[in-house]
Amino acid sequence: MKRLVVLGGGESGIGTALLAKANGYEVFVSDKGGIKEKYKEVLIHNEIEWEDTRHTELKILNADIIMKSPGIPETADLVREIRKCGIPVLSEIEFASKFTNATLVGITGSNGKTTTATLTHHILRQELNVGLAGNIGDSFAKQVYEEDFENYVLEISSFQLDDCIGFKPHIAVLLNITPDHLDRYDYKFENYIASKFRIARNQTKDDYLIYDADDEVIVNHLKYHPVQSTLLPFSLIKTIEKGAYLDKENIKITIDNTEIIMPTSKLALEGKHNIKNAMAASTVAHLLKIRKQTIRESLENFQGVEHRLEQVLKINKVQYINDSKATNVNATYYALESMDAPTVWIVGGVDKGNDYQELFSFVNEKVKAIICLGVDNEKLMSTFGNMVDIIIETQFMSEAVKIAYKIAEAGDSVLLSPACASFDLFENYEDRGRQFKNAVRKL
Fold first, then answer.
1. pLDDT tens for each residue of 152-167
2. Are 22 and 141 within one domain?
3. Does residue 241 share a domain with residue 124?
4. In this prediction, what percent of the chain has a pLDDT beyond 90?
5. Would the pLDDT of 193 be above 90?
């Protein structure tokens, strides 16, 4: 009997433990922090051995395989010990993919993953039996264990890809690559780029790679590191023969000489970046033989994702917008780009080596005040201090929203788009977004 040790008792860890036990593995779950009560109950009910608040090396280093949570970095002492022992380390995505024959759609990129994965799933589920997993909802492993869909849309982060060895999605989507999480990649952008491209490394010519042809980082990497996959680019500025492009006000997608045309005016989601997300999702749907009418209708009625440019409330003619999911500069770039009213911008958190320069033109043009919400706001204060008349710092969401309420006038927008991780003041970006919405509702 093979022994699988799961490091991290969160969603992906518990799912992996269940799937492994059902497939005859001896399983041990170890979490250095605390495991949530609901997960402990699952482990006890399924008679899976576990520990929390510590890692017992004797029980870990005798594993045949280790599945580590994507949140645990390679630099952790325990991971170094595991590598020294030569024990294979897999991600949950890699492990679960071995136990399903489903058609896999893998979606990655620095920004837009959740929106594109959710939108793709929304279109496909109209006609197919399909699960949505990865960085979103119930874990992939748990879904394979419980109901094993015939198709999966997987939102995959670079951390998950780092421990993928044989993973091979039939359709891979690479939305964009901008510097993010560089603290995990020795501050080398090329390491992060290589990590994203792992999504296509095992693909053959019978598989597809859908990618943004306007993204120079992706295009350059493909030039010097070609992949085996059939390429289907999408673009807002080039004419694409095989793939998707913008022709005036219409999205045109051509695959195997069949064409689908979709007016952008009918898209439920606004902004240039969402035209790209729609192109990527529609290309996947087209490949999986979803009817054109279904694709069109799904794009028109898609409601978007919580914490992503989510319109919360209008109070005294001021629109409050929750974009808590913007955990890097590029995501905030999209948010500020889509603002068409004077904006009070709430920003800050854990800076991952951010370069704010690409935001300068938007800040000068659209932002009337900045509220820095973080434990350490020094970099924000010095970067933007001279650009706006009002810049204030706080460490409480309720206070940030009250300050915004005082500053904003009729016709303005208040935008929470932090450009940073949330872990200094909040549990995660969802917690940050919900606190923002609660504070707005209490105004």
1. 999 998 888 888 889 9
2. no
3. yes
4. 76
5. no
Say whether 282 counts as a known binding-site residue: no
Q: Of the residues 63, 90, 117, which one is the last residue of a structural domain? A: 90
What confidence score (pLDDT) does residue 257 get?
83
Residue 110 annotated as lining a ligand binding site:
yes
Residue-number span of the structural domain to which 121 is assigned: 94-301
Residue 116 pLDDT > 90: yes
> Is 377:424 a contact under the CB 8 Å cutoff?
no
- What are 328-344's pLDDT values in tens digits? 898 899 899 989 899 99
Residue 330 is labelled as binding a ligand: no
Q: Is 411 annotated as a binding residue?
A: no
113 is in an annotated binding site: yes
Average pLDDT estimate for 6-11:
93
Regarding whether 100 and 71 lie in a shared domain, the answer is no
Q: Do 253 and 399 fall within a single domain?
A: no
Residues 359 and 400 in one domain: yes
Known binder of ligand: residue 239? no
CATH number of the domain residue 33 falls in: 3.40.50.720
Residues 165 and 249 in one domain: yes
Helix axes 292-301, 113-124, angle to 10 degrees: 130
| Count of domains observed in the chain | 3
Are 391 and 407 part of one and the same domain? Answer: yes
Q: Is 114 annotated as a binding residue?
A: yes
Question: How far, in Å, CA of 341 to CA of 325, rounded?
Answer: 21
Q: Output the domain CATH number for residue 360.
A: 3.90.190.20
For every residue of 258-270, DSSP letters joined together read EEEEEEGGG-SS-
pLDDT at 345 over 80: yes
Question: For residues 289 and 283, what is the distance between their CA atoms, to the nearest angstrom?
Answer: 10
> Which of 56, 90, 124 represents a domain boundary (last residue)?
90
127 pLDDT higher than 90: yes
Which residue type is seen at 62? Answer: N
Look up residue 50 and give its amino acid.
W
| Per-residue pLDDT, 138 | 87
Q: Which of 105, 87, 103, 90 is nearest to 20 (CA)?
A: 90
pTM above 0.85, yes or no: no
